[in-house]
Q: What sequence folds into this?
């Protein structure tokens, strides 16, 4: 064996160790065929966890712009770029946003809240200036495209933030009060909040574990979808999830009950059952 191939072997083994450790955290069981591919990007992505406890340390100059460059590097449907983002750092404004989102304390603590906007206003203004129409945006497809664009952009920003040692947490609860959010940040018609994202340095005193995900057999189908094949993996996931919750000192509710609780009935949507009507008030149409 040459020195070069020995080095390569050692590196591969180190990578296999790293992927095994990452898989053990993410799935709490071994995953076939996961070995052999590993790099820093995968390490950041597989180590994701939402952070709800932040240091008061402010963000360095240029962080916001760096995150937005990552966000703008996401794919965009037909490159229409139908999204915008509003950065909120003022404590009083953050306090109002925490209230819109059901008093989530991490919004107060994080130095930055990014509010991601589905934005069909920009293309509409361009259409008016060009003396033409952007009527295509008035179909459900238009809303989906703008919400997708905002989502992919936000997720790129999230990965970039985590790669810089920052913590983040999505705030979907801003959709409980989209009209108040729109008013607060001066949104024009045909724009709406999709969600917020808190960004800050994680408080090292509060260790947040990596939340297990469903075994791959439950989500990965080859050639043909199967509900039946998911039953046993879901049962395993309930066990893994209970172990995670025990470690994090959370109540012992199985994953399937937690998932159901979020979608049980209209009341569980915390105001979002009337989202369509509110979006129509904000100028969206769903033809
Ligand atoms: C669209 C979206 C909205 C979310 N909204 C909230 C929220 O309002 N508050 C919160 O604390 N976490 C929120 N989360 C975080 C999820 O609870 C979290 O991603 C999930 O429990 C998995 O945990 P993990 O991100 O640590 O892996 C949201 C996540 C997503 C993707």
A:
């Amino acid at each position: 064996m040459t020195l070069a191939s020995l080095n390569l072997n050692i590196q591969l083994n180190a990578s296999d160790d790293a992927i095994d450790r990452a898989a053990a955290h993410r799935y709490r069981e071994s995953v076939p065929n996961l070995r052999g591919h590993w790099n820093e990007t995968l390490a950041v992505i597989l180590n994701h966890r939402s952070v709800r406890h932040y240091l008061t340390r402010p963000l360095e100059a240029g962080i916001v712009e760096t995150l937005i460059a990552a966000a703008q590097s996401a794919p965009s449907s037909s490159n229409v770029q139908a999204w915008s983002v509003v950065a909120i750092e003022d404590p009083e404004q953050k306090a109002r946003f925490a209230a819109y989102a059901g008093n989530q304390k991490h919004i107060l603590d994080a130095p930055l809240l990014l509010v991601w906007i589905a934005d069909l206003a920009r293309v509409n203004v361009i259409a008016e200036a060009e003396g033409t129409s952007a009527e295509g945006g008035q179909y459900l497809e238009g809303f989906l495209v703008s919400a997708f664009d905002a989502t992919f952009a936000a997720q790129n920003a999230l990965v970039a933030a985590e790669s810089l040692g920052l913590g983040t947490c999505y705030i979907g609860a801003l959709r409980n009060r989209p009209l108040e959010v729109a008013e607060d940040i001066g949104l024009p018609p045909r724009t709406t909040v999709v969600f917020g994202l808190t960004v800050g340095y994680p408080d090292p005193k509060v260790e947040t574990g990596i939340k297990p995900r469903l075994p791959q057999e439950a989500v990965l189908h080859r050639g043909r979808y199967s509900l039946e094949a998911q039953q046993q993996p879901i049962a395993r996931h309930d066990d893994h999830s209970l172990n995670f919750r025990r470690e994090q000192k959370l109540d012992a509710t199985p994953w399937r009950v937690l998932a159901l609780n979020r979608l049980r009935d209209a009341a569980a949507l915390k105001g979002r059952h009337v989202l369509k009507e509110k979006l129509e008030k904000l100028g969206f149409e769903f033809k």
About this structure: The mean pLDDT is 95. The longest helix spans residues 3-27. The chain has twelve helices and four strands. The radius of gyration is 22 Å.
